[in-house]
Amino acid sequence: MTSISQQTRKFPHLRQDFTASLVVFLVALPLCVGVAVASGVPAELGLVTGIVGGLVTGMLPGSSLQVSGPAAGLTVLVFGAVEEYGLPALGVIVLAAGLLQLGMGALRLGRWFRAISLSVVEGMLAGIGLVLIAGQLYAAAGLEAPSSGLDKILGLPGAVVDALGSTEALTSLAVGAGTIAVMVLWKRLPKRAQAVPGALAAVVLATLFTLAFGLSVATVEVNGLLDSVQPPGSEAFGGLADVGMLGTILAFTLIASAESLFSAAAVDRLHNGPRTEYDKELMAQGAGNTVCGLLGALPMTAVIVRSSANVGAGARTKASRVLHGVWLLLFAALLPSALALIPLPALAGILLHAGWKLIPFRGIVSLWRAHRGEAVILVVTAVSIVAVNMFEGVLIGLALSVVKTAWEASHLRLEVVDKGAGPVQAYLSGNATFLRLPRILESLEALPQDRPVELDLSGLHHLDHACRTALENWAERHSASGTDPVKVTEPARTAV
């Protein structure tokens, strides 16, 4: 009894954390396998990343209740990287991304990810969701999906025709649709039944259904945990000389970091415990990705689905996420053959459901009503990711966000006072930037050419070089018409 009481004092929340770890394990298991299969890598590599997320990242400081593992948000990027550079290069890409995250955390750059426009992040997730949905519709039917996001969407009508003409494809689609239906309806069951996560229940029921009726659908290919773990060889590092691979590494780093730290901010709103230390959390993610890279596994991010399940199950400390990694390890070591029974269309159904939740349908409508500019950025980012690729789509979104911010910061007012005699007085106030040049010059050039002008710039808070040069040129042109030189009152303090 004394020993038990001592353990209780040492780990006062062990019971809550133990229970929460089981819930997170049951949520993470089908997602780890599904993300791996959708990424075009062995299913075991998804489990490896989940294990590292629990045992490595879970032990480190940063966010105490956030859970890390393979994320649906990186599926599209991983699939493209594996297709272009091969599976051995994936380890190099993830390793390099992890080291970059460690460096950024050490330089205390983690907090700056909070400055990224939320519309860009939501647009990124929406674009990923669209590509993920399109790709998994092919997987649900047992068909091969085109490589690019745009081709996936454009090829859907042809895929529907092919599926309607194939009994096997229709059977596979029925299993996928049934999986989604179970996940949606599971939330309507009594709370006691919902103790089992809907995704796990859907996969188990789909597996039992296909076995009971002997349905001819593809199942997960099992290679064995040790056979699937292949650290990158020296030849794989030669790809670092490829500019395209360097861009992929940068994309992995930025997207994984942004998703993890935005997830941390969301998790902080779910509990009253210690707040996230963003630089330490970025380093924790970097350490996890470094280990995943060395093992040749999938990249990791913090995952809001698992994290919210962890908080909702009553977790109090990081022990819950560490234990969930232990349960994943035990499953991978003791029951790997169970993976071979899981139908692939069931996993496609889980990812279709996950992709749908990545698209903020209600958020877009409310954003359009309140902030149309932000809504445009969100939609353009999502469409760019589908039409071009992940990295360039995010860059387009960031560029639009910067331009929008600069435009809104360029508040400028021009007041013209013309008393009918004497000089025309023009007062400029606010921020004069190149973005407002067309409006400024159009108004000044409309002033009478045969009258002297007094241009008062003392109300300006900011006057950039482009505007100053343009105003000087206009003053010279106006003075050249034979009138008195334009009299200019300089700002009290000019920022160039």
TrEMBL record:
Primary localisation category:
membrane
InterPro entries per record? SLC26A/SulP_dom, SLC26A/SulP_fam
* Domain SLC26A/SulP transporter span(s) in chain numbering: 14-381
Q: Which GO terms describe its biological process?
A: transmembrane transport
User: Record keywords: Transmembrane included?
Assistant: yes
Q: Where are the transmembrane segments?
A: 18-38, 85-107, 119-143, 163-186, 198-220, 240-262, 326-356, 376-403
What Pfam families does UniProt report for this protein, alphabetically? Sulfate_transp
**The keyword Transmembrane helix is annotated on this UniProt entry:** yes
Subcellular locations according to the entry: Membrane
Q: Keywords, A to Z?
A: Membrane, Transmembrane, Transmembrane helix
GO CC, sorted alphabetically, is: membrane
Instruction: Kindly give the membrane topology term recorded for this protein.
Output: Multi-pass membrane protein
Q: Which PANTHER family match?
A: SULFATE TRANSPORTER
What is the name attached to this protein's record?
SulP family inorganic anion transporter
Task: Give the source species.
Answer: Streptomyces griseicoloratus
**According to the entry, what is the taxonomic lineage of the organism?**
Bacteria, Bacillati, Actinomycetota, Actinomycetes, Kitasatosporales
